Amino acid sequence: MPKKYHISTKATPLDLEYLFKFRITRGENCINCGKCTKVCIYEAHKREIGDPRKMAAPNTAVCRNCFRCIQECPRGALEKSLNQDFLNSDGSYWKSNMLISLWKQAEDGKVPVSGAGYRGPFTGMGFDGMWTDMSEIVRPTRDGIHGREYISTAVELGRKLNHLVFDADGKLLSRIFDTVHLPLPIVFDLPAENLPGNVQAALAKAAAELDTFLILPVAGLTKDFEPYADNIIPLLTHKEIDQYSALLKNARLAALQYDGELLNNYQAVKVKMKGISSAPVIIRIPAGKDVEDTVSQLVHSGAEIIHIVADYCGLEVNGHASSHPRLIKDIIRAVHLRLVSEGIRDEVSLIFSGGIAMAEHVPKAMICGADLTAVDLPLLIALGIRLYEEPEKFLVLPEGLENIPVPILTQRIVNLMGAWHSQLLEVMGAMGIREARRLRGETGRAIFFEEVDEDTFGKLFKNREAVRL
């Protein structure tokens, strides 16, 4: 049995102001009695360092909204109100509460949801309308993160065989393809361009520490990334293969950006890549309207790994022009079931990204049919970068981020992945599943709200609509 995969988390606060839901204000009628310092276990209230006779401004960032200080203040000098910046950050998909959750997970690495129960929504777009089977949670051996039962979160990247062929003497005739082992079903996708150098270095260093990969365009691969070369997936077009052949020769994985020309000449491109390196090749394709057709053609042509990329809210790329763009949950299921129906699902590894925002999205994506996921924006949110959706995606880098040491930024990314890994263990333990590979396509172990809603009320409202017409 392989050694258990463990992520070492460590409390790593970041000296940058981030989102908080409520703002505490201290009125002029404060008598500096210090009662609030005694009742607040989170140390939101302290005395001024320079003059301990006076109370310092409340530290809202550590407040957990227990309202104890408000109740205990003898003069009613403390007041709480909703922070306007919290309200402004709230989008249709990326909610302010999600941003705060990611920030806190990066700070302490604690499991987001454990025995205390899930506090998120039970219906809504995307993964919010999907519930996982937790029937095994009552069994004492299904204890997820506590370690009494071996649970593997490892996956393999690369082309697989759906059957083996032997000759008359029992000798294996089937060719065994090269695969890459990942202890965690998550890779990093570079979330944005023009990030500070220390942020990019932290992403690469964290990928190396976690034994996963960071996908980077070849144009951005400078000498600074050489220490992490084994954990970087160079992304290029098929026209750039000859130009970067030296780099591809030593890569453990490589990624090619999809276009129509690549599909028409894939066999020639495949031969060229194999002439340079034996590394498995990822085809990166936008999650467009007919993506399952393209994926099917690529797999029949011998594609080993396909990375399907939705937009940052988990919607079909270029799908906003229509009234009903598909959600990433539905895209994953459509692609997976298409390959299953053609009997070729086990011949390819599928990576999905776009809208993977919370820890529970990883197992939910795998249940829908993904082999693993690629995360991007959560990595930046862990480092204090704010995301605004309206009127379009807009990232705001906090002042001073470029001066934060790389080890601190690295540890926060490691903490975030530690929290997500623990969440995956919790889900798998509660479902009675010991290997992450078995999560793939297990839709029978999940409930989809829209399907329950249709089964329960669909006929009723359809009949009513027919009568009305």
From TrEMBL:
InterPro entries: 4Fe4S_Fe-S-bd, 4Fe4S_Fe_S_CS, Aldolase_TIM, Glu_synthdom, Glyco_hydro_31_AS. Its EC number is 1.4.1.13. It holds the Pfam family Glu_synthase. The keyword Transferase does not apply. One of its GO terms (molecular function) is iron-sulfur cluster binding. It catalyses: 2 L-glutamate + NADP(+) = L-glutamine + 2-oxoglutarate + NADPH + H(+). The keyword Metal-binding applies. This is glutamate synthase (NADPH). Residues 20-50, 54-83 form the 4Fe-4S ferredoxin-type domain. One of its GO terms (biological process) is glutamate biosynthetic process. Keywords: Iron, Iron-sulfur, Metal-binding. Belongs to the glutamate synthase family.
